[in-house]
Amino acid sequence: MNPQPKDYELISELLALRQLDDVYVIRSANAPKNTTSYRYYRAEKDFADLCGWLRGKGVKTKSPIHTLRKEFGRLLTEGYGIYAASTALRHSSVQVTAAFYAEDTRRIVPSLLGRKVTAGNLPTSQLTPTGGIVAA
Fold first, then answer.
1. How many CA atoms lie within 13 A of 121 on its CB side?
2. Is 72 exposed, middle or buried (0-12, 13-18, 19+ CB in 10 A)?
3. Does the CA dihedral 94-100-103-106 come out positive or negative?
4. Which of 60, 72, 81, 102 is the most exposed place for a label (fewest CB within 10 A)?
């Protein structure tokens, strides 16, 4: 398919726009409104609900979701090794994981379903080829 003359016109217009310092493609006589002084987090309610649930299960830290992630990483390291934990946590390298999870802290995760869950009584699981966990 050969480009039509109108295609060349469009290409030249787009190339001209690329050269402009303006960040807007469509110009307006009205000034932009940058009046918001806050950042919007679209999952704020879910985030608050999860934090509340974790606090109800005994997590009293400043960042309960981070504490949950740390416990997840610790249990993976203990049960499946540092490489599995590094993959599941999506760390940039095994060294990053080792810096935080190589030392055994023997903490207990929050109680779930009315009982204390530790690495010793977790349900049997297996790792997927991508490093995720699938309950057996």
1. 9
2. middle
3. negative
4. 60
